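Hi, can you check this record?
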Amino acid sequence: MSATATVDGFTKSEKRNRVMLTAVDRGPENGMRLGGAISSTTIWQQVQEAQPGLRIELTISYMKEHLDKPLRAATLASVAKMSLPHYFVTFKRCTGSTPIDYFIRLRMERARELLATTSCSVKEIAGLLGYDDPLYFSRVFRSVNQTTPTQYRSNNRVQKSIVAESRTFSVANSG
């Protein structure tokens, strides 16, 4: 047996590395710390804290891809690989709102874009965003934006025409 090997065939360094990996795998009860005594955050805690944010980002991406469909909280929780109660708590902690409120805000953000950039009717936009009833869509839009879809569109068009007029005025006066 060599002078550096222990009884079980591992050096002290190899044994310490093996114990460290096992401690990380087993979780916070082993207290493995980054940076020795300087950091009070364990590796396990850092991994656990990073994952919920990534999982919530996945569900937000899922929401953005499915703005035109009704969405169930249970579906979002399964995308995040979390139980429903844990998903609600984690989502609210990460975003400051509930998943359904967040989804409605995403839909209304898209509605504002469509109203500003297309000539689609309010009924068509409601349908594009998964609302079967355009009147309900208008009520939700108003509750989120404090204006109706039609008023929003006309105010936005007025702003565009003012910008266009100011460009025309500046070009006419420069020549």
Observations:
- Confidence is low (pLDDT under 50) at residues 13-39.
